[in-house]
Input
Amino acid sequence: MIEPVALKDFFLTFFSAAMVIMAGALYALLFAYSRVRARPRLMPLAYAAYICLVASVLVLATVANLFATGFWTIIVALMLVGYLLAPHAIWHLCVGTHAHEHADEESRSFRQQS
Amino acid sequence: MAAPGTVAKLGKLDLANLNGGQKLAVKYFTVALILFGAQILFGLLAGIQYLKPDFLFGVMDFSVNRMVHINAMVVWLLFGFIGSVYWLLEDEAGIPVVGLGLGNVIFWIFTLAVAVVVVVYLLIQVGPGNHSTRWLIIEGREYIEAPRWADIGIVVCVLAFFYNVAATFTKGRYTGVGGVLVLDLIALFGLYLAGMFYTPNISIDQYWWWWVIHLWVEATWEVLVGCLMAYGLMQTLGVRRKIVETWLYIEVALMFGSGILGLGHHYFWIGTPEYWFTIGGFFSALEPIPLVAMVVHSVFDAGAHKMKNTNHPALGWIIVHAFGNFFGAGVWGFMHTLPQINLYTHGTQWTASHGHLAFFGAYVTIVIAFFYLGLQKWRGNVWMSGGLIGAWKWKWAMVLLNVGMIGMVMAMLISGYEQSQIERAIEGSTWSGYFIAQSHPWFVQGNWWRQVFGCVFATGFVLLVWDLLTIGRDEKRPAIAHGELATA
Output
């Protein structure tokens, strides 16, 4: 079921696994910041972070022998799709949950103006 | 609350500023802080024994120091959580705590029981491993060593606590935070029962033991912290209830979706069937997703609220909580969670490194944030925002505690890396391999650096206690009103 990591690949395994999470967080951070501050030029950087994440996942999958079986290959694919879509989904949830707050702010500023 | 018609004197510690639940919370916080100090003290002693194995040998053995170090952590966090729930209970339910007298009695019983258990640990360090030992002295199972009588006591105390919480919400009003809390407390005492029966089969024993360890920590405690975080954000940033409660539900769903079966990563090497590799690997890969969600939501909230807040130290620790949880649970966890590499790292200093950062980041930080929320109100809802008198103390305490923790974590990471390579991969987990790895310069130097940074952490703790005793004492300004936050 599993094929252990080779000794020579220890560092690469730890490093690539850490980079999966770090690049995933950087992608989420840049994605959200670009949207919340309305700075679309940051969005390419967000996707560059996602490409780093893809590279990290592929390195991890190679050194941890994940491509050796179909099950682990599916997990790799799900991780890539999940990390790509998660910030989009969470962003929509953020907008939805804060919708009333924004409506209140707009009505408050309207009252102050009138 | 101050009595009607009276004005609370700003900056003065006065129990009249607090409601009944909050007065009880202060007692829990006090014991929690003392036990936090005990945890650090015994951790330092155990750390010295890594460097000088003869130190206190036969007087206070390493096994005892390590056990008290970890048990003190579990119990002080539990006291901190219980105190935090009592703190928010009347605010949330809108009525006085139901059965507060029982809650007070249970507090004293719980505290006395903890003291007796620790004294017995220290006085009876060696003895036979029979049933009377298990019932009266020590159970002998890592992390939940408390003897059976204390186990039963813990369940009774948590049941009484559950009664206080459930009855108060039922009689008052059920908020979203309240509903999640009540359901979570059922799981909190229910899961503890899984660790309370005896079986001579080590695989079966470990199977159930992990229900307590993993599911308490990565499910019930995380959800409890989610509730505390929701209340903390409403108090400090003035975030609307509807928003925090919606996010609490999302967090609970994500956490349960990935965290419960993430239990599988503890079942890799205990003699359970091979399908646990599949389950553990899959759900461990999912576990970072709630953390990515947290990053997006934090950025959104920071943009929406411009960080204007009522309590700088509390919000500071809530921010440390977000980072600490991300790095400790996310990065440090995922680095060695897949079975292909966990085969080599399981139970080494790698695990200790992950454990230290994850517990500090996810739990210690949020309890400290509640200490500060508590003190603000205890001193008459005093100003704790920008320009706070003596603010250097909380800032330096935060810096020293964080630098100390990160230093310890990095030192253990280096030691653990060496252990997993030499002891596990090269020497094949043999007896001689264990000693070869223990005497390797990387391991030894890692232990020295852990001790150095442990002292930095202890210094931060002393400063934290000093700050908690004095913060807000000289302030005469009232706290920022929530209405002002809403218009920020």
